[in-house]
Amino acid sequence: MLNNKTVINLVMTCLMMIFSATSTAGSKTYTAFFSDLAVSGYDTVAYFTQGKPVKGSSDFTTQYQGATWQFSSQENLALFAQAPTKYAPQYGGYCAWAVSQGDTASSDPEAWQIVDDKLYLNYNVDIQNKWLKDSKKLILQADQNWPGVIN
User: pTM (2 decimals)?
Assistant: First the structure.
């Protein structure tokens, strides 16, 4: 017979597995489980125009690939609306390093790089450092793996 603590641990483990699988499975754009915000609400145009991550605002939003995208200004929203594929991060905002390894992971808007006019996000600064050592090779690997890793 299972005790209450064991049952609670089993239920929590099952719930975590369900939530983590459903938050990314099949979605072209990474969003957290309880949110539909792309790039954690950061303004993807700002990476290109300001050269840094800038938090977006709920005053300037649009829908794209099943997610809500926020921007810091009406101008950035308009730029995105004109050319979303130019400004959206590669691999739907999933961690670029993870995609290069044949997997998916969330990304940190503060761990980023623009290569050949494309935005790449990574899981955290440590993974970003791995990415920076050979990003060109890793991009080729990730391109081969995408979008198969989300199916």
Answer: 0.82
